[in-house]
């Protein structure tokens, strides 16, 4: 009786489908960043809707003020974060860059619309988002360097 090489009937390539080097033309990178940022800002705005409407429909607004400056600010912040993520993802495999970008922009937009921070506080939120993305990219770069070193090392099987 011959045993199959692997006992797992599911192809393991599908599990790591999102992790790979994303090379391609600049327009494709720009389109990805724009769509991911638009999704993040939209999801953050939708998450904050219950705090934006009239008081008779739910909770009173957390803070008065215009929404557009915060939506535009997080769109600009998201474009910067997306550029960093896409720059690294074009060189080394980065795990789930879409989820990181959309989630970061969504949380920042949601917090800003419910709280309406001053510019300095908004800059602090943007710095925290940039720190998160930078650490995410640093982990990917470190992992790629370790793999490259292990492949170049003599005596490995």
What does this structure look like?
With 157 residues, this protein is mainly α. The chain has helices at residues 26-48, 68-89, 97-115, 119-152. The protein is elongated. It starts with 25 loop residues before the first helix and ends in a 5-residue tail after the last helix. Mean pLDDT is 81; it is low at 9-17.
What is the total tally of β strands?
Answer: 0
Q: Which structural class matches the secondary elements?
A: mainly alpha
Q: What is the helical fraction, as a range of percent?
A: 55-70%
Distance between the termini: 29 Å
Spell out the blueprint of helices and strands.
Elements: H1 26-48, H2 68-89, H3 97-115, H4 119-152
Helix pairs in contact: 1-2, 1-3, 2-3, 2-4, 3-4
Give a quick rundown of the structure.
This protein is an all-alpha fold and 157 residues long. It has helices at 26-48, 68-89, 97-115, 119-152.
Note the main attributes of this structure:
mainly alpha
